[in-house]
Design a protein that fits this description.
The protein is of the alpha/beta class. Helices cover about 35% and strands about 25% of the residues. The relative contact order is 0.16.
Length: about 250
């Protein structure tokens, strides 16, 4: 069996101050998967992602990215991951080109390596006409595309997207879906967090629903969405919604 893109075993994260953000999460995502990571606000999704990408330090458990320990061998593991964070952590006065270029530099790409890669990404995400504008001037959908291009600059094998379509209008959301489907077709493994169940159903082949820092349910899209009431019902049941609140 080939090594999984992501293997999380018994992850636990307690923040200073005592908040238990992740109680106990285990997940294995094979290479090439398009994986949906769902759950209510505060369930621990972003914290899990922060532990995978070295932004937060796990309190317990183990995370391996293509077999590489995400804590002990942080730099090597991090290089394999492209992250689109939930919040825009960019210089609002920088241009799309600079933002993507700096991340390439961070990952040790030379100017000669970055130039063709940036030209390709600007073209692919239709950022060409906006490449010299300031980030703060861009619409929400364009900002998301810049952050997606930035996540891909070093050609990572695992792409993690934390609510990439929050606040993006319907049309631009469809454009993003198309990009994500293409990236997955190129062989990249994708971990997607979203509150749009339609989006998850359309894109993901496997889904985990987390609640209060634990995996409440995990299964294939067909298992999760195939029952009466579809994915929404599965989600409400897994997250402990009152039976009264669950549609027949
Ligand atoms: P989700 O992404 O699923 O909405 P988070 O991982 O952001 O959930 O948050 C899980 C819990 O951890 C919440 O109770 C949140 O308030 C808390 N939390 C998140 N980040 C921090 C932090 N940096 N310091 C302290 N508590 C945090
Ligand atoms: Mg979050």
């Amino acid at each position: 069996m080939s090594v999984p893109a992501l293997a999380i075993s018994h992850l636990r994260k307690v923040y200073r101050g005592g908040t238990v953000a992740v109680e106990d999460i285990s997940l294995t995502i094979p290479e090439g998967e398009f994986f949906g990571f769902l759950g209510p606000n505060g369930a621990g999704k972003s914290t899990t992602i922060h532990c995978i990408t070295g932004i937060a330090e796990p309190t317990g458990g183990r995370i391996e990215i293509f077999g590489i320990d995400a804590v002990k061998d942080y730099r090597e593991a991090r290089r394999l991951v492209g992250l689109c964070p939930q919040e825009f952590n960019v210089d609002p006065f920088a241009t799309p080109y600079q933002i993507v270029d700096w991340m390439g530099g961070y990952f040790g790409m030379t100017a000669a390596q970055r130039k063709p890669r940036l030209d390709m990404l600007m073209e692919r995400f239709e950022l060409g006409p906006h490449r010299k504008k300031q980030f703060r001037e861009l619409s929400g959908g364009l900002k998301r595309r810049v952050v997606l291009a930035r996540a891909l600059v070093h050609d990572p094998k695992l792409i993690i997207l934390d609510e990439p379509t929050a606040g993006v209008d319907v049309e631009l959301r469809r454009v993003l879906w198309r990009y994500l489907a293409e990236i997955n077709r190129d062989g990249k493994t994708i971990l997607l967090t979203s509150h749009y169940l339609e989006e998850v159903e359309r894109l993901c082949r496997r889904i985990a629903i987390v609640d209060k820092g634990r995996v409440a349910r995990e299964g294939s899209k067909d298992e999760m969405a195939g029952g009466p009431g579809g994915l929404e019902q599965a989600y409400l049941v897994a997250t402990g919604a009152e039976p009264d609140h669950v549609a027949d």
